[in-house]
Amino acid sequence: MAEEYLLEVKHLKKVFSRKRSRVIAVDDINFKISSGQCFSLIGESGSGKSTAANMIAGLLDITEGEVIFNKKTLPDKSCQKGFYLRDEMQMVFQNPLSSFSPKMTVLYSICEGLRYRSHMTRSDMTHKAYETLEMVGLKKDYANRFCSELSGGECQRVAIARAIVSNPKLLICDEVTNALDVSVQAQVLQLLLRLKQDLNLSYLFISHDIALVSNISDRIAVMKEGNIVEEGVPEEIINHPKHPYTDILIRSAQMG
Q1: Where would I find the ABC transporter domain in this sequence (predicted)?
Q2: CB–CB of 171/120 below 8 Å?
Q3: Which domain holds residue 174?
């Protein structure tokens, strides 16, 4: 019996057209993520990894190729206003503070993903938000604060709460620890690992730090100049890199 995948990325390509030139940011990449799996796209700035993530999340138009998520080709025209994507696939961004409106409280921000659900009352949404805050290690009195009043780690926990409140199947995590102190990075990664187990989540991690994600990933793909140059399990990638660029990333992480 053929294995079923939660996410399949097939021949994905993104071209940005300028006045006198075309920039190929992502060039014919392919990968698959199984349910419950953590898959990481690794590469330096400009490698195309975040562009790929934004196409998968529906934040950027796809030039060529297709994204199949939970057996549906995206964007799914049958799902009115993208509600399917909101429920099943969520994204956590690098800079948590910039992803929140400064005029919205933590409670309002978390409840955003629930407001279109006609069967949920305001009381239901508030209860769900409190419950989700506790899941990410924050007390419910955080609900009435603004994200600008929180530390970077606390703000990223709120961002994770906002992402999981709709019970998604896949989280796309784009450099989610990059703006945090080293000690806080470890705490956020441990939180994500616990949520993965408790909620049966799948992850697509985007990172420049191969050492950071090697301990949490089931598979790693290395991107360079819009192409995936190597893919495999972390042990193979770290101990027996096949591509020179992968070796450079590993040595750079060791020196850091």
Answers
A1: 7-250
A2: no
A3: 7-255
Residue 123 lies in a domain: yes
CB atoms within 10 A of CB 42: 30
13-36 confidence digits (pLDDT tens)? 999 998 889 999 999 999 999 999
Average pLDDT over residues 24-50: 97
What's the total number of domains in the chain? 1
With vertex at residue 223, the alpha carbon angle to CA 82 and CA 184, rounded to the nearest 5 degrees, is: 75
> Letter for the amino acid at 138?
L
> b/e string for 119-158 if b means 16 or more Cβ within 10 A?
eeeeeebbebbbebbebbbbebebbeebbeebebbbbbbb
Tokens at residue 211, please? Answer: 């050492």
- What pLDDT, in 10s, does the model give residues 222-241? 999 999 999 999 999 999 99
Cβ atoms < 10 Å from Cβ of 118: 6
C-alpha to C-alpha distance for 87 and 96, rounded to whole angstroms? 20
174 and 93 Cβ atoms separated by less than 8 Å: yes
- Flag whether the pTM goes above 0.85: yes
CATH of the domain at 202: 3.40.50.300
What are the φ and ψ backbone dihedral angles of 215, each rounded to 5 degrees? -80, -15
